[in-house]
Write a structure and sequence with these properties.
By secondary structure, the protein is of the alpha/beta class. It contains 6 helices and 5 strands; from the N terminus they run βααβααββαβα.
Length: about 200
């Protein structure tokens, strides 16, 4: 999409290896000053902590990073992970700065240059509480250069992406005026959900 088809990366157009996993949460977005999605954050943290505690994952030596679509969701996930770390000190080594690649939690605009084997993504947006509508403004992604941020985000992972979202592809309305970043988000959600990359 971004390099005229000249760059070959994972995943292939049709894949069975599950390099991108789609986790639909269906949480609601708290707009205004909150700008968070509590159910999505809690579901992601529960899955991440279970992964860290799994003997199989520990033996794998894989590293993890978390990326959110805004700084408010980033702070919420950091707070939830801090609470889990207080409950279980056995998690602490995964976050220690002594480690070469500790677990990180960053947002879309601060993750450039960071890589991990597995990237957990919280898309954050969803139907606004009290409505059945999804706002068609996706923050930095809806700006003219928003596609660049998605390009950076989706290439932070060396092995796989765990995509936690409250958005279905159909929630994003696309027309001739839709920014490239918004279109790219819709297409990526569609790919993650169906495992087939539609070329346009």
């Amino acid at each position: 999409r971004y390099y005229g088809g000249g760059l070959v990366t994972f995943p292939s157009p049709v894949t069975e290896d599950g390099a991108v996993s789609f986790h639909f949460v269906g949480g609601q977005y708290e707009k205004g000053s909150a700008r968070i999605n509590q159910p999505e954050a809690r579901t992601l943290v529960k899955d991440l902590v279970a992964r860290l505690k799994s003997p199989g994952f520990q033996r794998s030596g894989l590293t993890i990073g978390v990326v959110t679509f805004n700084s408010e969701q980033q702070r919420l996930i950091e707070d939830l992970l801090d609470a889990e770390r207080r409950k279980d000190p056995g998690l602490e080594p995964f976050f220690s700065e002594i480690e070469l690649e500790p677990v990180f939690v960053k947002n879309l605009e601060s993750v450039q240059g960071d890589e991990r084997d597995v990237i957990f993504i919280s898309t954050t947006f969803g139907k606004v509480i009290g409505t059945d509508k999804v706002r068609q403004n996706f923050g930095p992604i809806s700006r003219p250069d928003g596609w660049r941020r998605l390009n950076v985000l989706f290439t932070r992972s060396k092995r796989r992406i765990e995509l936690f979202t409250s958005l279905s592809p159909e929630d994003i309305v696309v027309d001739e005026k839709t920014p490239l970043g918004t279109k790219a988000l819709r297409d990526y959600l569609d790919f993650a959900k169906r495992g087939v990359l539609v070329t346009t």
